[in-house]
Amino acid sequence: MFRLTREGLALIEVAPGIEPARDILPQMEFPIPIPPTVATMDPAIFRED
Question: For the whole model, what pTM was predicted?
């Protein structure tokens, strides 16, 4: 999940199992800063129950 800040896009949360440097940055058309720690989304929202 991204948030638009005064400095530009900020990565604030990722799905479980996603590694920003491997899974997100290569897909971006422009560089974004990746904070040292990014919150992980609640895995329950991805269950099909």
Answer: 0.75
Which alpha helices (DSSP H) does 1-49 contain, by range? none
- Three-state secondary structure readout of 11-28: ECEECCCCCHHHHHHHHC
DSSP letter for 15, please. Answer: -
What are the E-state strand segments in the chain? Answer: 2-5, 8-11, 13-14, 39-40
Decide: 11 and 40 in contact? Cβ < 8 Å. Answer: no
* Residue found under tokens 């900020």: 10
For the chain, which ranges sit under pLDDT 50?
none
